[in-house]
Amino acid sequence: MKLTATPAHTRALGGALLLCLLAVAYGRLDALIVALPLIAYIALAAALRPRTADAAHETPPAVAHVSAQRVLEDDPVTVEVSTTAPHTLLSVGMPAQAALRMTPRNGLITGAGATRLQLLPLSWGRYDMGPLVVQHADILGARRVAEAVSPPTISVSPGDAAGAGQRRLNRVLGISGPHLSATKGDGIDLASVRAFRTGDRVNRVKLARDPPAPARSTSTRCSPSATPMSCLITDTDRDVHALASAFADRTGSSLDLTVRAVAALASRYIGLGDRVRVHDFGSRIASIRRHRAGASAPHRGPARSRGRMSDPIRRLTPLGHVRSGTLTFVMSPLLTDEVAAEIGRLRAAGADVHVIDTMPAAITGLASRAARDDVPASHRSWATAWGMRVAERKVLIAQLISQGVPVAPWQGGDGR
After folding, report:
1. In this structure, are 250 and 112 located in the same domain?
2. 26 to 17, 19, 20, 30: CA distances (angstroms)
3. Interval 244-277: pLDDT, tens
4. pTM
5. Residue 313 CB neighbours (<10 A)
6. pLDDT tens by residue, 293-336
7. Which stretches of sequence are listed as region Disordered (predicted)?
8. Domain count within the chain
């Protein structure tokens, strides 16, 4: 990038030339005296012009850094924009974003060589803060150039995941090394050699090691499959939110409650040493297998999906085989019979199913507000319709409870 003259520098140069011509043509010494400050400004600007080793005197581009790329809600993040060019003033402007508080509030700041913006994310999600508009100028404002800089993306996890469970493992299962469970089985880490018995796999028999005798031996291995597994099921295609903005009320959206519940439960059970699998009945969250949940669930779950958000509601994607006794949490606003039928199928398969109702409290309270005089007429019909829909949900919830499936609303990290 090459610095170009600013309007102030152009006006100073034109004024100095005009005054010098007047002084020479008419012998006016006062015109020359008036031109001296302008000449000094031009000379000083040329002396303090940012220079590099490049023959074209091009200014190196600015670089943006963030203090952390993965944070929790209400954790401050610092964005620093700097340049290696000497005697340079940087003016940085950041576009405003919902649920992102900036200091300064207008997102504009100027500094010598480097500037810092303080950000405070108020809600979970993935924040793409760019492009930042960065203007390079010398200290006198005689030359400047502008560019666009894209800082790294910030991923903000729900605050419910913080302290969800005491971590008893030093590493995530199956990611940075084998996890040695207490039960020996057909696993991944060699434990000992024992006599072959009925039910063992034939390829486990050590024919090269065994003598020609009727008794064969096989390797005993520590199996991670003996580790308890938790299954988290979400219903994201049916996102229900109140009339108010979801950023103004953090519990104003069923998708928001679902993500908070997934983040908190995954962090808790992974910290306790369990394997976690995430499955979505809808299409916004890609299913995470149990071998990848340890690395992906705490970070991939709490991210606002930007793709296929406007697609029509699709057919429910059922969960495949589930082992009997698997602890299963289903997070859904419970608006369709298909979800209830899938919950019943999981219950019949032997899974220990717990339903977390993610219907926002603002929606369930609309029925009582419909008859109030202070509610506008335009909102009264909306409240009445949702009141009828909530009444239908009560029948569905009663059927689930009668089948032995507990149903409870999500109350946050401290209330589950």
Report:
1. no
2. 14, 11, 10, 11
3. 444 445 556 888 888 888 888 888 888 777 788 8
4. 0.64
5. 10
6. 444 444 444 444 433 444 444 567 788 888 888 889 999 888 78
7. 290-311
8. 4
